[in-house]
Write a structure and sequence with these properties.
The complex is a heterodimer of chains A (about 220) and B (about 300).
Chain A (H helix, E strand, L loop, with lengths): L7 E5 L5 H10 L3 E5 L10 E4 L4 H10 L3 H9 L4 E4 L1 H6 E4 L10 E6 L10 E5 L15 E5 L4 E5 L4 E5 L5 E6 L2 E4 L10 H11 L18
Parallel strand pairs in A: 1-2, 1-3, 3-4, 4-12, 5-6
Antiparallel strand pairs in A: 6-9, 7-8, 10-11, 11-12
Chain B lengths: L4 E2 L2 H10 L4 E5 L2 H10 L3 E4 L4 H7 L8 H10 L4 E6 L3 H9 L4 E5 L20 E5 L2 H10 L3 E4 L9 H18 L6 H8 L3 H10 L6 E3 L6 H9 L5 E3 L1 H4 L4 H13 L4 H8 L26
Parallel strand pairs in B: 2-3, 2-9, 3-4, 4-5, 5-6, 6-7, 7-8
Helix pairs in contact in B: 2-4, 7-9, 8-9, 10-12, 12-13
Classes of the chains: A alpha/beta (about 220), B alpha/beta (about 300).
Amino acid sequence: MTDSRRPRIGVLALQGAVREHVAAIRAVDAEPVEVRLPRDLVDLDALILPGGESTTMRKLIDAYGLRGPIAALARTGAPLLGTCAGMILLADRIADGDEPVFRLLDVEVRRNGYGRQLDSFEADLAVGTADVPGALGAADLHGVFIRAPLLSELGPSVEVLARDPDGNPVAVRQGRVIATSFHPELTGDRRIHALLRDLAAALDREAPGRQSKDAGVTE
Amino acid sequence: MTTIERSTWATKVGLARMLAGGVIMDVVTADQAKIAEEAGAVAVMALERVPSDIRKFGGVARMSDPKLINEIKDAVTIPVMAKCRIGHFAEAQVLQALEVDFIDESEVLTPADEEHHIDKHPFAVPFVCGCRDLGEALRRIGEGAAMIRTKGEAGTGDIVEAVRHMRAVQKGIRQLQSMRPDELFAAAKELRAPYDVVKATAEAGELPVPNFSAGGVATPADASLMRQLGAQAVFVGSGIFKSESPERFAHAIVKATTHYDNPEILAEVSAGLGEPMRGQSLGEIPPEERLAVRGW
């Protein structure tokens, strides 16, 4: 393992838009790894929780004992990206009363907060201004929203990366955790994946507690 | 664009992509829908009768009662699909008014039109359609289907037709890929499909929309087989609620679809499941009673 190697970015591959994220990871010159079992998390530098059905993913995460190992990976400082259903899995609070899963992002989300499939939409998203570009630069980001969750409340340390035309936050970041209510894997714009790759590349691989083949994966 | 655009092609195909790797289960009551959701289904198909009962019942099979569809919609948070008859655009309009998440223009119901399928482009709700081969898949995509499923033979628990149809689609795609660009015009004519859809398929080496499998999946190994043959997800109709133990079958088929390439997990989830749906082999069904031949 050398510092110049490409970051290894996992995609939780239980169900959902896995192949689209795998393609996006390749496009930003990182190495994709499909994660179905705890052993697949070994030596990952980052993890994506993709879009799909959060109810299904939540059940399969527990069926295969992935909850502890993913939380452990996050504790080592590995950056995480959750898109749509993945954002619900990361959230600290879920408005409709569902139990939160990883509680790694200080937000409240409302599942299908934008409505059912008939309300699914596309829009250009404002990401900072020309004078004060944010982490994603200044150009609008195109977002595809599918039965999308709504960010209904943000904690004080959560930074907004992009907003929908109504002004709702739709991409947020808290430290090394990024989440979007839209699907950056469905468009050709790779800025969100590039941000994840940069955070992964900056990760201190020697930090104590990093998961590796030697240390094994622990709950 | 400064405003939002609803129900675009990207949102329709996008929903299909979100269901990849999952299992879509036929349910006939709100209680069954809850069992399906609890077992990890990515969506449910709201029906009055599962296909094996449609066979037994005979008569004309139509769109389900909107009351039933609404009850199922209220019972679960996962997407709800419903079927309309081939060519019956008025049934599709009703299903759209009910705000279902996907419409299946399905050969399982009695066809309403023996020449035309629904023009699916004007609808806001995405459509899934069945196919037996590449030409049929590309015709449906040309009409606006945002998801394709190979038909198989619904209600039999016999996987042989699903395999035949999936292999036919994949073989057709490989043949397109081997062609020179100037040969694709004749290929489109032979496939009786729009040239631009043929060209897009040849270039991508896959259908322009997700390709799922349906019709005859009855065991975890059936789900694995179809995924290994190229299906991105599976529909299970009678296979779950006509088995000895629907909850266990539902869980097992969900796990088998995720871990389709892991035989150890398949062995584990297949052990002690009880009897699958009894089924009816394809050979026992007279050709005129087969459902897959419906659709043109």
